[in-house]
Amino acid sequence: MITELYNQLFKTGFSCAILPAGIEILPTPETITLAIPPDRLPTVTEGQLVISGESLCTPPEPGSFSPINGLVQSILSRNCGAPKNHMLVTIIKGSGSDITARNKRKLLFEPSNDLPALSSDELRERCAACGFHLPINNQSLLVMMVDEDIDRITNRWYFENEFDSVLTGLRLIKRIMPETEINIILHKNSPAQKIRHCSEWGRVITLPLHYPDVLVNCIIQRDQHLKKMRGITVIGARQCATMVTSLMTGYAGISFLLSFKNGLNGASKLYEIPIGMTIGQFFSQINYTPLSGMQIIIGGEMTGMAVHSLSQPLTPSADSLLVIPPKAVRTPCNTTCINCGKCSHACPAGLRIDLIGKCIERKLIQEAVRLGISDCIECGICTAVCRVRRPLAHLVSFGKSLASRSTNSGVVTEKVKQ
Amino acid sequence: MKNQFHPVVSFKPFRLSVLQFHHINYLLLLLLIPATVQSLSLYGMYAARIIGTAVGSCILWDTLFGRIFGKPAGIYDGNAAVTGLLLAMLFPPFAPWWIVAVAAAAAMFLGKQLFGGTGASPFNAVCLGWAVVTISWSGIMDPSYGSVGLQLPFSIAYPLAELRFHGNTILENFPTLALLTGKQAGYIFSGATLSLVITGCIGIAFRIIPWRIPISFLAGIAGTACVIAIAGLPQSGTPLFHLCTGLSIPGAFFLASDFSSRPVSPSVMIIYGVIAGALTVLFRTWSIFPEGLPFALLVVNIIVPLIDRGRSRKKTHLPEVVHL
Fold it and tell me: How far apart (Å, rounded) are the C-alpha atoms in residues A142 and A136?
């Protein structure tokens, strides 16, 4: 659930060709992907805010200026199908027009009273909803801040851009959990200014190694101080930076359009809300009181997803929010089929859902596969027309999972390796 | 505040059918009311006794057998009441109360609960109950002399029995319009033919009764009657005669379209109707029972699970995606 949320936060698709010579803009510009040639280094990191006109690599290259204000969704390296040795930077478009170079610096550099006015519980909850589990109080935090490349150019880049985000992350952690002891691992050859800056935040451990994260246990065993700690949370520097940026995007004004529909037959209105705003906050903003026993659905009434709590954040993948008042809530029941055949008549794939449902209830998976459950697109029309409200779509998806697990069902499920 | 808020979490989809099974059953009862009123006005207390006993005993037997088999009572969704009213259609006016009760017991037990409750029986419960009682007490259930002694504004002879015994010469006694408007005796609902046609069409308009079943059923009856008439049998009757007498109309609209025993695929419904109609006429002409419709339905119910296997409709054709 939480990882799904995190994926949803940065969900988009690559749909433009990457050329080193120019920028290709999509017809519905929600995302833009730019390519950085192999001899340049990126100046941004995942989750970082970029403003229009900002250069994405150093030294700057004509094709790699960000044309929009946005949030860096991902940076893929050379192994991911790009033209030889290019790096692909994808930016989600934001509509916050008030991000300028000045207040972006302000967001990252100023002391903690510029952070969003949330309580530490809310901050922790938001972090968890985006996939970051902050260390429990009185544990030690180990921040890995070592890069692959150690040449001078890298260190300068690292110091200027990402480091500020990391510091803000550390500031956030200090604010939420004041008793956490922070240990920072740096490379031995890091610039002295960087080491000095980090030592203001916690204990600095320098290593001559390139990849210390695989030797974390080794480090902990060797270091006398760390060995005495009760528990240690290891967090990457990039994670630290991304965490704070994902929290700050609401503050910095990256927003998206959400359509809110009150009731199954109600009118719908469009709202522009910041990314990461929770459903509860959205309701309080529009003065809507949620009643116990209602259904809150992200998506539509046929293929949406019901949420279980008001603290679920809204992300660009949630195009619409539908609320169903308690009296109009209808859930499927566990009833026997009356053989009216409405489900089969309504199925767009022409499947015999009445027979399939009965087969799956009796665990006759081979028969269900022969009837064609692989053709089911789970549109939900069968359940919507069922006269006794059987959970047919649920039965078919359950049947699909049973079929993939059993060896003699006739279904060959291929495991797709990463 | 957060602890008190409990939204309902369920699997998609979230818009479910407003029209449910009990609505359909109540609608069917409503559709049968005009015919019931007509039969009550014609046969008075005899019809009232049969209808009351049929509906009441169906409900009681359903509850009893439901308890024995551990199923929830079908009386709350109106299924037992509809079966009872349809069963009442199939009795001659002088049938004693115990025959109706035994038929209801057979219908509920053999035709419903034994196979697993509502919707599980491959056999039409009403026809099964009727068949059990007709074979056991064929004298009492015989509609040929069922109305002897009643003061009716028309001939008390059952038309099909007259056809069997006296051949085609009696056809001029039964003009089609008279048969349609209900001037025929036999079963207690025989006088309500036209109102059953009208309410049956209303049922088709409400999509409770699929239009393919009554049309193919009546086409089967008419076609087979045509064939037999052309073959020149002395007791064949005309197609229109077969269409309007006896249980043809109530059978086509209400008995053949019983949910649990009818096929699901639309093309199979047509085959089902035609075979049932053909068998009806064959049973009427050559079997020992003057009205063979419920037997024909039972026979065709046996083959429905065999033929009703294919897809319900062709896959929806999506527009072709053009790859650039």
Answer: 13
